[in-house]
Amino acid sequence: MGRLTSTINAVEARGQKSLVAYIVAGDPHPDQTVDLMHALVVEGVDIIELGVPFTDPEAEGPVIQLAHERALVHQVTLLKVLEMVAAFRLEDAETPVVLMGYLNPIEAMGYEAFAEQASLSGVDGLITVNLPPEEAGPLAMALQEKEIDPIYLLAPTTTDARAVAVCQASRGFVYYVSLKGTTGSGSLDIKAVCERVAHLKAKTPLPLFVGFGIKDGATAAPIAEVADGVVVGSAIVTLMGEFEASPQALKLAVIELVRDIRTALNASNP
After folding, report:
1. Residue 40 maps to which CATH number?
2. How many domains does the chain have?
3. CA–CA separation, 258 vs 270, rounded Å?
4. Overall pTM > 0.70
5. pLDDT tens digits, 14-67
6. How far apart are CA 139 and CA 111, in angstroms?
């Protein structure tokens, strides 16, 4: 059993729901990323989702696009992201780290080379936004050999037949994108999301996590009533831009936000 599955199981055994926090590696500065990862864990984050900076992040809204740009100013490459994970692992051997990004840098490195280096660095899972499971065979095989979980996305428009196929291809958990459009767009129709999640959960034994649109404790708690976990991304990344010039103020703001969400999740699942 990998670190991702064992962590999710442990959270469930405590009667809680998993909290996943997304940040872009190197945003707002590479020197801050590992420290922020540790701060997230201290405040109750169960899984860290680390965005790999890319020049054309087509699934992202303006907030996360700007985060990619801020990281790329500092030449944060895929290799540098893996170095950050390795540095995080020097002090934390327990918290799962999932990379989220686009196929292009991985393809440039080579699937086997990437899987090897990711494994050595301590990566537990991979979300490749622009690679559907139908086309992921070679990469999925390379990941499987290194016990790295491929995680795929479900959307509000995903048909039932395709949802089954996506769930079968996923490992660790399945990621439900609760909004149509890019990250940070629109506001959640909580009732509709809960109904859709309940429907999808019947199609897979894997945990189902919900992301896109989780902004605070008030939005996280009702979703967690039906989902196995929530992913908060744009709300955290917004703070990266607002407090770019003040690392200490940024850290405090991130801590306050994550603490609010963790508290809400615990209160709704005592």
Report:
1. 3.20.20.70
2. 1
3. 18
4. yes
5. 999 999 999 999 999 999 999 999 999 999 999 999 999 999 888 888 999 999
6. 6
